[in-house]
Amino acid sequence: MATSLSFNSAGIKNPITNFTPSSKFPPSTTQNYPPHIKNFRKTLQCFSVSESSVSSAPLQPEIGKGIDEEEEEELDDPTSELSYLDPETVPESVTDWEVDFCSRPILDIRGKKVWELVVCDASLSLQYTKYFPNNVINSVTLKNAIVSISDELGVPLPEKIRFFRSQMQTIITRACNELGIKPIPSKRCLSLVLWLEERYETVYTRHPGFQKGSKPLLSLDNPFPMELPENLFGEKWAFVQLPFSAVEEEVSALQASYGFGATLDLDLLGIQVSEETLIPGLAVATSRAKPLAAWMNGLEVCSIEADTSRACLLLSVGISTCYIYATYYKTPVTTSEADAWEAAKRACGGLHFLAIQDDLDSDDCIGFWLLLDLPPPPV
Fold first, then answer.
1. Which of 39, 26, 9, 44 is nearest to 348 (CA)?
2. Contact in structure between 117 and 195 (CB atoms under 8 Å)
3. Which CA distances in Å does 337 have to 13, 23, 95, 165, 245?
4. How far apart are the first and last CA of the chain?
5. Inter-helix orientation angle 190-202/36-47, to 10°
6. Are 113 and 102 in contact (CB under 8 A)?
7. 21-54 in b/e burial notation, b at 16+ Cβ within 10 A?
8. Which one-letter DSSP state was computed for residue 210?
9. CA distances from 257 to 250, 260, 281, 286, 295 (A)
């Protein structure tokens, strides 16, 4: 019979036996950088082009206006749509898409909310946007749009499509199933979420139909924590921290071995962290580390949160599932440690990790997940 996780003060490489307040931690360089989206926008500016740029015919500038000026105006038009594939990308390599199909804080000429399809891959090699009236929102419209993207950009239909809104699960799943695509509900659509933040600032708020103060029609779920399934139980756990350089080593080892876990492209996401910055994490040890890591690998692990009001750790997976991952006795000391761990996570811009090991004193990880806790997009 599996047992639930018990608190253990030991850790990997840099154990935190007494988790001190974050002010005593080595300062995180991420505190001195602008928000993620400002760094992320630089990536988009490198890639984003207007829809007309995929035309086979060259653009003809207006009299007295250069091509660069005309392209700049098109890029600056909040009503324009986008269809782009990085010319250096091998089309067959774009196998996983991230999709959002939702209303925007924009009204059309009928006074109805405009819907938008936003599609990208994790590397932003593929970028696509298209507006729709609210009376054509169904799985057929989405299926046809997916096929159009494939035909227009010359990429194969994706093997997987990730999405983060539970309210659209039926429509997206039906469209994917009809095309033989695997739908994956997941909040690990980080490139998509950051792009939506960028579009809110630079596109939606400048659109002539923008409605200030309009709340998202499909808000993200805040699920009630559930009991952890027995197959996900560990035996011991500890709050730990690793220098970012060590985190990079774990990520490289994971990529080289095709092991259990998941990584993030921090450069693409605009997250700048110095090598010395201590990244907070959670180490879980169990004698059945490999089976546990395999089970976890089948989940879309999103983030871990220390909930001091409940004296527990919350594990978010998928788009609307939250588990009570571990509990601890609530004392001033444990509450302080949990608060400090959350403060360290915030200081790193939400960056943290989950490590699964045979033993907390081991230097080796059976599974390693690099995680990023981001607020939901404003749309």
1. 26
2. no
3. 18, 13, 41, 33, 24
4. 45
5. 90
6. no
7. ebeebeebbbeeeeebbebbbebbeebbebbeee
8. B
9. 11, 9, 21, 21, 18
Within 10 A of 136 (CB to CB), how many other CB atoms are there? 11
Q: Which residues contact 233 (CB under 8 A, 6 or more apart)?
A: 2, 3, 4, 5, 286, 292
Task: Give the model confidence (pLDDT) of 336-368 as tens digits.
Answer: 999 999 999 999 999 999 999 999 988 889 999
d(CA 187, CA 177): 20
Distance from C-alpha of 254 to C-alpha of 46, rounded to nearest angstrom = 29
Q: Which residue in 4, 198, 180 sits closest to 95, CA to CA?
A: 180
Q: Do 306 and 269 form a contact (C-beta atoms < 8 A)? A: no
Q: 199: number of CA atoms within 13 Å, CB side? A: 27
Q: CA–CA separation, 212 vs 274, rounded Å?
A: 38
What global pTM score does this model have? 0.80
Residues 6+ apart with CB under 8 A from 263: 251, 254, 255, 370
Beta bridge partners of 102: 116
For residue 12 the two structure tokens come to 């990997």
* Axis crossing angle, helix 139-153 with helix 169-179, rounded to the nearest 10: 50
Q: Using 50, 70 and 90 to split pLDDT, how confident is the model at 62?
A: very low
